[in-house]
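INTERNAL TRANSFER SHEET
From: sequence group
To: structure group
Subject: tetrahydrofolate synthase

Please process the attached sequence and return the structure record in the designated field. Keep the field labels unchanged so the import script can parse them.
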Amino acid sequence: MTYEESLTYIHSLLRFGMKPGLARVEALLKRMGNPQKELRFVHVAGTNGKGSVCAMLSEILQCAGYKTGLTISPYITDFCERMQVNSTPISHEELARQVERLKPLIEEISREGEPVTEFEAVTALAFRWFSEQGCDVVVLETGLGGRFDATNVIETPLCSVITSIGLDHTDILGDTYRQIAFEKCGIIKPDGVTVSYPVQEEEALAEIMRTAAMRRNTLRMGNVGALEGMNMTVEGSDVIYGRLPLHIPLAGAHQHFNAVTAVEAAWALRSAGLAIEDVHIQAGIARTKWPARLEIISRNPFVLLDGAHNPDGMRALVRTLKETLPGRKIFAVTGMLRDKAYKEAAAVLAPILEKAVCVAVDNPRALSGEALAGELERHGVQALAAKDLEEAISLAIKDVGEDGVLLVCGSLYLAGPARKQLLALKEKN
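Return from structure group:
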């Protein structure tokens, strides 16, 4: 099986199961010898900030000398980013080999009952690869929700982490903070330790506290009052948390809170017996890189790429741009999914924009460029639709000039293809 054939096979599987639950992935893992039982995990769920917190924790663990597995969802530019060991994605050849081994088991289970989904197959594959690689710890990011997420087959992890809870995937997870928090808190296992993002909506926090107490978990939350010296630029921030100086190379005040979450999780892991010193925490956070999180692609013209794709994420993006690039004219290339809260996201984004070029992202759930342009125009933004991403970037970049900023945002499904095109354009120039 070639890499291309392996991807075609993976993408041919159902996106979601007919019935929610873990029975399919449990059956698949049982036939694989339950590789997840040979691993130790940090399990991370939440609406926003999961990727950043996972990246920080992965780097911290590596700095402490642990061979570290990492899962992310979705990927930005290459499918193999979804599973990494010590920040190196699985190779195309190894992914193809693993899919070829897994395919007969998937088809066997599918013949016997309900078909295995894409995410279940990828999760099972990752567990076996991490086990074969001899990972000491795996930082495991959920895909959607938590309670019925395929990653939730694991037993009590070293630490469960709940990042910022927001209103996203409301058609599946519920339309209140409490309902969504209930689904995310499904990862909290009995007699464990849970770390929460330090600034949660009141009803989300109440659900986190309730679940942690019910499952006899120690609950750790960062103290935002202990954050000092927040020197913030679009390059990142220098802060002190308690007495611990931190350089955070990811921009935005929300990244201060993500870093606090990572620090508290690292301290929880230390209490669990891992040899993590404060110097490892400082070094790990300082070297964290995370594509498409206010990533500076170019400085002339100034180009920023961000994967914000829901109203809470968009609010964090807008707040950061106002604080770090005051007075700069912002021109956007943007595309969104029609099943997201795109009207609210557009309303949040519109006030900072000089002009926008809208495009449909490469996804069956894409909102048309014309519909998004119309939504932004309702909020007073000069907006037009482009036929494709290449045209959108070409049209927008003409207006940026020396003092402007080109912002590409709206969806992670836009961020990946845009990153490739922007880097190629930078190389050519």
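Handover comment: The radius of gyration is 21 Å. The longest helix spans residues 92-112.
Transfer complete.
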